[in-house]
Automatic annotation (TrEMBL):
Gene Ontology cellular-component terms listed: cytosol
Protein name as catalogued: Peptidase T
InterPro entries: ArgE/DapE_CS, Bact_exopeptidase_dim_dom, Peptidase_M20, Peptidase_M20_dimer, Peptidase_M20B
PANTHER family in the cross-refs: PEPTIDASE T (PTHR42994)
E.C. designation(s): 3.4.11.4
Annotated source species: Lactobacillus kalixensis DSM 16043
Length: 421
């Protein structure tokens, strides 16, 4: 057996971190920055070097996909893994990764006056002795999600070098624009023929997240009637007050500042108005699909009541942003239970994470491929304190290999045991 390639995973991670792949909300190109194309093309070449088949890149969705073909005659159902190439909304120019071999658990001077402090970030204690990689104070590192990419390539190289390990078809996908919630919505999954998949995006070893927010946004416009206040009796309709009446009809305690774990909220983002017109923007977030729909209905009914009372002065535009894959995945407990088996085998304690946001998996699940999120081996995502360790990226590679090999054993007799929690 050839072991996981430490230097390969380290070198790939560092070279990908150096590439500026920041995504831009305001840009409508596909993908939203040329740096992402450069990395995606580089990954396309890497999949070729690793001997994958059916590799393709599409300009339409900017996804690279490739297949590690099954090496057994009665293969398990095709399984997929997904990581994203873009980085968050933070300086990504001239990223200079710093390598701290055999990390001693002490504070690290990143540069530019910033310290990665072990008191402030206690998770650093878990990586003492590791080869720790940080940025240098003025940029993010890009561990989100280049640690996911490097771990996935680590698994791929390991399986390609150890052909005695049985596996079914494994599909790999690298995509753009996750941080701005646009990439996976465009993904043409006809190029990714799997039964289910996992994203490897953030999280800690042992995490699994398949319940996310359901999300909608709404804009409510109020039309008033302006007349001279001295002669306003029975005539004036004040749009600003209509907006206030609307807001006071929203549930008082269903707000972000009183919401945690599996609780949702309605957030009034903007409340702008005068006598003539007013506008309220809000978002709705909820894990529970029924309650999410009830909250949308509550907003619709409030508008209806105001229109009945004041005569069609309120307009509502509401649209769904993303949906939690929770309901779909609960109907397919095998997808979660397989991860439980693999984590147990790896000695990882399992944490079910309610993910208080959206993921690429939300969009991919909506296209019919149930896709929970696992983890990627990094920490402190989205800023200058990001870090990853080569050991944790190898742990990711080992975990993915374990999922694939357990899948071969378990797939033929999918147990009907209920969803493990
Ligand atoms: Zn990410």
């Amino acid at each position: 057996m050839v072991d996981y390639d430490f230097d390969y995973i380290k070198d790939k991670f560092i070279s990908y971190c150096k590439m500026n792949t920041r995504s831009y909300e305001t840009n409508n190109d596909v993908p939203t920055s040329p740096g992402q194309v450069a990395l995606l093309k580089e990954l396309e070449q890497e999949l070729k070097r690793l001997g994958l088949t059916e590799i393709s890149y599409s300009d339409k969705d900017a996804y690279v996909v490739g297949k590690i073909p099954a090496n057994i005659s009665n293969p398990s159902a095709p399984i997929g893994f997904v990581a994203h190439v873009d980085t968050a909304d933070f300086n990504a120019e001239n990223i200079r990764p710093q390598i701290h071999e055999n990390y001693d658990g002490k504070d690290i001077e990143l540069g530019h006056g910033y310290t990665l402090s072990s008191a402030e970030f206690p998770s650093l204690k878990k990586v003492i002795g590791h080869t720790l990689i940080t940025a240098s104070g003025d940029t993010l590192l890009g561990a989100d999600d280049k640690a996911g990419i490097a771990g996935l390539l680590g698994m791929t190289k390991y399986l390609q070098e150890n052909t005695s390990i049985d596996h079914g078809d494994i599909w790999i996908a690298f995509g753009p624009d996750e941080e701005i919630g646009k990439g996976a919505a465009r993904f043409d999954v006809s190029r990714f023929p799997v039964e289910f998949a996992y994203t490897l995006d953030n999280g800690d070893p042992g995490d699994i997240a398949y319940e996310t927010f359901n999300a909608a946004s709404a804009k409510v416009k109020f039309r008033g009637t302006v007349v001279h206040p001295g002669e306003a009796y029975g005539l004036m309709v004040n749009a600003a007050l209509l907006a206030n009446e609307f807001i006071s009809g929203l549930p008082k305690d269903f707000v972000p500042e009183k919401s945690k774990d599996y609780q949702g909220y309605i957030l009034v983002l903007k409340n702008n108005g005068n006598v003539d017109h007013a506008e309220v923007d809000l978002i709705i977030r909820d894990f529970d699909t029924d309650h999410f729909l009830a909250m949308k209905e509550l907003v619709t009914n409030l508008v209806k009541q105001l229109n009945e009372k004041y005569g069609d002065r309120v307009e509502l535009e509401m649209h769904d942003q993303y949906r939690s894959p929770g309901d779909l995945i609960k109907k397919n407990p095998y997808i979660v239970n397989l991860v439980h088996h693999a984590y147990e085998k790896m000695g990882l304690s399992i944490h079910h994470i309610p993910f208080r946001g959206g993921t690429d998996g939300d969009f991919i699940s909506e296209k019919g491929i149930p896709t929970p999120n696992l983890f990627n081996g990094g920490a402190n995502f989205h800023g200058r304190y990001e870090y990853a360790t080569v050991e944790n990226m190898i742990l990711l590679a080992q975990t993915l290999t374990t999922i694939v090999t357990e899948h071969v054993k378990l797939d033929q007799n999918r147990d009907e045991t209920p969803l493990k929690r």
